Amino acid sequence: MPPKRSNEETDKQTRIAIVNSDKCKPKRCRQECKKSCPVVRMGKLCIEVAPNDKIAKISEELCIGCGICVKKCPFEAITIINLPSNLDKDTTHRYSQNAFKLHRLPTPRPGEVLGLVGTNGIGKSTALKILAGKLKPNLGRFVDAPDWTEILAYFRGSELQNYFTKILEDDLKALIKPQYVDQIPKAVKGLVKEMLDKRSELDNQAQIMDFLDLKNVVDRSIGDLSGGELQRFAIAMVCVQRADIFMFDEPSSYLDVKQRLNAALTIRSLLGPDKYVIVVEHDLSVLDYLSDFICCLYGVPGAYGVVTMPFSVREGINIFLDGFVPTENLRFREESLIFKVAESATEEEIKRMSRYEYPNMVKTMGSFRLEVKSGQFTDSEILVMLGENGTGKTTFIRMLAGKLHPDDGSADVPVLHVSYKPQKISPKHTGTVRQLLHEKIREAYIHPQFITDVIKPLKVDDIIDHEVQTLSGGELQRIALCLCLGKPADVYLIDEPSAYLDSEQRLVAAKVIKRFILHAKKTGFVVEHDFIMATYLADRVIVFEGKPSVDTLANSPQSLLIGMNKFLELLSITFRRDPNNYRPRINKLNSVKDMDQKRAGQYFFLEDKFLVVSSHPQDIRRMPVSTADVLQVCSIVAEQEEINVCFTESLKGAGIAGVSAFTLGVIFGPVGVAVGGAAGGLAGARFCKKYQPFWKILTTMKKEDKERLCVHMMAIIQKLDITDAAMLLALVTNKGVGYRNIVDGLMLYAQQISY
């Protein structure tokens, strides 16, 4: 029987100590970590630090994991982490003592796209550098680094052995598209066409430029390009060169939905039998669309990262969202990330009090013209603006904020207190984050509700004492969001809150915005290109259409289903929902699902149960019509037909108008409806002065009223021989045979309810 390992031996192998070099300041403290350490008091050199040192050093072999130094450090520079017991080996690289280390490596496969998903600071860029041959893995031995013979022996028997052998023999050339494309103008000067011609080694330049829509900027200087143009230029620079390994670090930043999918197709066009493609992406719907298989990275940001084994695309992303790796029986996040749209807009907890309106507006800026259709919005509501880059979303937001004024002849925008988070964040404050928050949002910053809803989820406390000028893009985004929500206002206008945030932070930010708008009973207008975040946030959507940068139209707010359907139809993309966590998934172009949904005119679904899974009618998955289905259909019909109902004081007027139209319609047909409606309307005018859209009433309707409505509508649905939810939704969306029966039944019920 083998001897048992002592606890001390196990502890040595599974504990790491991290000292943050930016936070550790021995000259400004009394070395509390060393003085309080019980191991040091026993005479052992567990912590070594002197006032003149740059950083403290902690011996992981001697550390007992008591955590006293973590609590005593005045700058919160120390982190002691107990690793999972299966991580006592497989260390691929460690930068130095008490610094970040990476366990294992992703395994690329020729002819397939490998997607990497994980939070910021978890080791994705380190893994890319190692796989590109730009960083030599030291297997955790940062003092006595191993040579390549030893490294190849370490990877013996795996696919990585052949991979690194080819890199050593210079058989593989690697290209990396950098993460921060806004830094490119500082390093590269010249015109776009000159740079592409200089680097072009293949005959695909014209095709790539056409696909990435770069033909309009070929004669422009690189320093004059916008963020989206720089991103497309950086992707094109990689795609026109000859290489064996193509690596793309966040290729969707600054791009709109259409451009993201074009970029994804461009990247996939590089695939060949001996070509490797690796992509790091935080937009999960784009990563899903782009990748063939996925490696997740988990751990503690800035401390350690672990690469999982390869999974299929759906399974890999679901594992990341679930926070549990079944192959290792390990949970790396306390709670799963699930965002069910149908439940996120629960009716009982939303009490809508106020209603605002904005008029028809026109704004001309040089050769660009934006027309805005009038619309309404209420409190506790989020409206997401969908459209390509250059369609006027930011212009519309600035008009609502009062930063821009409509052209002469356009009606005045309502005067509202507005809080605005701009698209581009340029910090001007010279102090710390704490000073900035104290100066800008003092009351909210110390309010317990705001701390619970915003400060803690966004992890502002982790960077509270950092200098604002030294913050990264993601940290700046979190602070900007915090400042925006902390200002007292009627309307919160948030432009691209997902920029620079990783996948997990995006979902957290979406939940923060939604919870704050709900609790504060305010209205939010959000511009967002990340489709998962947009569908989670939206109560209603505003679709922008037209020719970008020339002539565009902002439609009136529509329900999530109708608006998304219209927007996706413009892009010719179809979505389905994952049955496990309800995240939107893009259907592959011209796949069976894609073709079936396009034929049915159903580009977007709220629930996976509505999906057509085969082109053959006998294979369609049948789901019985539920109460939720009936309420959803009623809301769609009420909005499409603009059905209004009156409040308590005007109930008699609505009754007279509706009953007159209905009665004469039965007797005399369509002519009778017109005559009866006119007569009833005149008679009801004495009583009826205040109407409310019926689809809004549905969100605040009492439970018993909803049940009566469902019973009433179910009787009509059964007479139409509708047996499943897919048939019902298709009938309503396409206004098929029997649609008028549903409309008439809903109008009849609308006349009976009392508010």
UniProtKB/TrEMBL annotation:
GO CC annotations, alphabetized: cytoplasm
UniProt-listed InterPro entries: 4Fe4S_Fe-S-bd, 4Fe4S_Fe_S_CS, AAA+_ATPase, ABC_transporter-like_ATP-bd, ABC_transporter-like_CS, C19orf12, RLI1, RLI_dom_1
Single Gene Ontology MF annotation: ATP binding
GO BP annotations, alphabetical order: regulation of macromolecule metabolic process; translation
Positions of the ABC transporter domain: 78-323, 350-571
CDD domains assigned: ABC_RNaseL_inhibitor_domain1, ABC_RNaseL_inhibitor_domain2
NCBIfam families, per database record: PRK13409.1
Family: Belongs to the ABC transporter superfamily. ABCE family.
Protein name as annotated: ATP-binding cassette sub-family E member 1
Species classification: Eukaryota, Metazoa, Ecdysozoa, Arthropoda, Hexapoda
